[in-house]
């Protein structure tokens, strides 16, 4: 169990990540305003050697866990959220799931490229009719009369889906519904029948687009099947839920990093900005804002660290993870909003980055489980009861 004080190894890791943050910070505004993928930042990440942090040692990585990934992501996000989102997909994205449930062949084939920063993964789960209710997905994997498996369906709001080299795609067996029959396959960029339909302009984190993907009879061989869609099994649905927990921890860590940058910028600004003949930090009302911002951050970080070191079937524990993400998402929105207020009208302009901080963290309370869904999860964990969200009598 990690205590309140980090050891030398963890402090060294933070310092390496801070060096990355310092290198990409000058690029952050460009990725946001031009809405282009941060290729130069990805080059910095590759050079740092941090992208293989959580890849198992036997596949060329460092074999570290979610806690170490979160330390790195907080630091990088304090410099550039778009860069941190890219790093997240290497550290806490689909490669983490493959390291736990993938076959030995899949791990040996896919994970070394992740560690080298050469294989960029995205996860394709969300569909037009399956958002918070992920088990309502309809993308299907069917075996034709020729014996070939084919993937057909549409995915939307897939973070980095337009740039990904490899996608972990959740699908289902034909004729199945609900939690039964869900599986997962790996699709490579450029496979016939796979197409990026469009990307959706968005409010924040604009350097990494949200893509709509179409799969029209994409041929899937046996080596690409991670979890076979079985109409009699809920194994795929369980993976669908569990594999989000490392990403949720990473989401919380990135929120902390951006919010910490907002607090640090606010402390510096209030110390130098003068009104009524003195620095505005000397006004008690503004001191209380800074104090409240710091309290929210400290609380969220402790919740995250607890979640990141927990384990449940190879992934961080659901209850701790839901608490950490909820607290961090809401803390980040509070802190970045207060930062704008402390900067006055200047904070509402794009002359300073605090308005970007606010936009960047807002979407994090939607990705990987909304605040409302997280509260449902926590309520179930607290009460020990499952509460059906569907109308009575619905399948």
Distance between the termini: 42 Å
Largest sheet composition: 8 strands, mixed
Helix count, per DSSP?
13
Question: In the CATH hierarchy, what is the class of the largest domain?
Answer: Mainly Alpha
The Cα radius of gyration reads 21 Å
Mean pLDDT: 94
The CATH superfamily of the largest domain is known as Butyryl-CoA Dehydrogenase, subunit A, domain 3
CATH architecture of the largest domain: Up-down Bundle
Give unreliable regions as ranges.
none
CATH topology (level 3) name of the largest domain = Butyryl-CoA Dehydrogenase, subunit A, domain 3
Q: How would you describe what is shown here?
A:
It is a single chain. With 395 residues, the protein is an alpha+beta fold. The chain folds into three domains: 8-120, Acyl-CoA dehydrogenase/oxidase, N-terminal domain (Butyryl-Coa Dehydrogenase, subunit A, domain 1); 125-237, Beta Barrel (Butyryl-CoA Dehydrogenase, subunit A, domain 2), CATH 2.40.110.10; 243-383, Butyryl-CoA Dehydrogenase, subunit A, domain 3, CATH 1.20.140. Helix content is 48%, strand content 15%. It contains 13 helices and ten strands. The protein has helices at 8-24, 28-34, 39-48, 66-79, 81-91, 94-101, 104-115, 235-242, 244-272, 284-309, 318-343, 354-362, 371-383, and strands at 121-124, 140-143, 149-159, 166-173, 182-188, 194-200, 210-220, 225-227, 274-275, 278-279. The strands form two sheets. Strands 1, 2, 3, 4, 5, 6, 7 and 8 form an eight-stranded mixed β-sheet that branches. Strand 9 (274-275) and strand 10 (278-279) form a beta hairpin. Helix 1 packs parallel to helix 4 and helix 11 (318-343) packs antiparallel against helix 13 (371-383). The model has no long low-confidence stretch (mean pLDDT 94).
